[in-house]
From TrEMBL:
It comes from the Bacteria. One of its GO terms (molecular function) is S-adenosylmethionine-dependent methyltransferase activity. Transmembrane segments: none annotated. This is Methyltransferase type 11 domain-containing protein. The lineage of its organism: Bacteria, Pseudomonadati, Pseudomonadota, Gammaproteobacteria, Oceanospirillales. Gene3D superfamilies: Vaccinia Virus protein VP39 (3.40.50.150). SUPFAM superfamilies: S-adenosyl-L-methionine-dependent methyltransferases (SSF53335). Residues 94-144 form the Methyltransferase type domain. It holds the Pfam family Methyltransf_11.
Length: 280
């Protein structure tokens, strides 16, 4: 009789660190390369003042081609922060270490938020989405990159013990379910694209064959890619400012900071930079 040992439950930070190490390997590097290429195609059309990213691959320059002025990295793991210190934080203007479920960011202050493979590994994925949605201005963009449950990436973990341990405890959220969650949070879905169709079997094929399969599958828009990239727009209407009837109240408000105190964090954390108090 074959006995399968139950894998131990790992924390959110341990999962992110394991995935980061996997992306540094040859197997994960191919996936990250395709994700960065598709992400760049969307970033050329997104503008604004402030952006924030939460990713399992800090320091990989996912937002290097972004048109947004100031890029901030929200890091949920001290282990990833130490890795980032060794590599250097060259792809962000400021770094904030925070609980992923309690963002120390003022509501309605970000033009762009990128969630890169963190929703499916969160213990409370819907709460994480709610925190991200709270910080985005009306008309702002939310980009989500997640593993596709209807792909070889998901099925391969039942064959490979290594992938089973790597994706243990992951919530493979389908694009349809993600769309429903974002709709309830006041977003409209603009686009869903897929990539890495042959992953993790891409190492068994030649470069020309691999690229041909990727190209054909993208042209046919097959929803079986290893990951999906979802582009959503915040449609919650903003409030119309009304001029106060008394004088002097305006002197009490010199600007609106980007970072502030969340409901569960007593010490406020502010983004560094000269323009951290710019109005959005």
């Amino acid at each position: 009789m074959l006995w399968l040992r139950r894998a131990e439950k790992t924390s959110f930070n341990e999962r992110l660190l394991a995935l980061h190490r996997w992306l540094q390997s040859g197997e994960g590097d191919y996936l990250l390369k395709i994700e960065r290429r598709q992400l760049e195609q969307e970033l050329h059309y997104i503008f604004g003042y402030h952006a924030c990213q939460m990713t399992i691959a800090p320091g990989e320059g996912l937002l290097d081609s972004s048109q947004v002025s100031h890029i901030n990295l929200l890091n949920p793991s001290m282990a990833l922060t130490r890795v980032l210190d060794q590599a250097g934080c060259s792809d962000c203007d400021s770094l904030v270490i925070s609980d992923p479920l309690h963002w120390p960011i003022t509501p309605g202050s970000l033009d762009l938020v990128l969630l890169h493979h963190v929703v499916e590994f969160s213990e409370r994925p819907h709460r994480l989405l709610s925190e991200a949605a709270r910080t985005i201005i009306p008309g702002g963009k939310l980009l989500i990159i997640g593993f596709n449950p209807k792909s070889l990436v998901n099925y391969w973990r039942w064959v490979s013990p290594k992938h089973r341990r790597l994706f243990h405890g992951a919530h493979m959220i389908s694009p349809g379910r993600m769309r429903d969650w974002l709709t309830l949070l006041g977003f409209s879905i603009e686009k869903i694209s897929y990539g890495a169709y042959m992953h993790p079997l891409d190492r068994c094929s030649k470069g020309l064959t691999r690229e041909l399969v990727e190209q054909r599958c993208r042209q046919w828009k097959l929803p079986i890619g290893g990951f999906y990239l979802m582009v959503a727009t915040q449609e919650t209407p903003g409030m119309t400012p009304v001029r106060p009837s008394w004088s002097g109240v305006r002197r009490g408000f010199s600007g609106r900071p980007i970072a502030g105190t969340s409901s569960c964090i007593r010490c406020p954390v502010q983004f560094s930079g000269e323009n951290s108090g710019d109005k959005v």
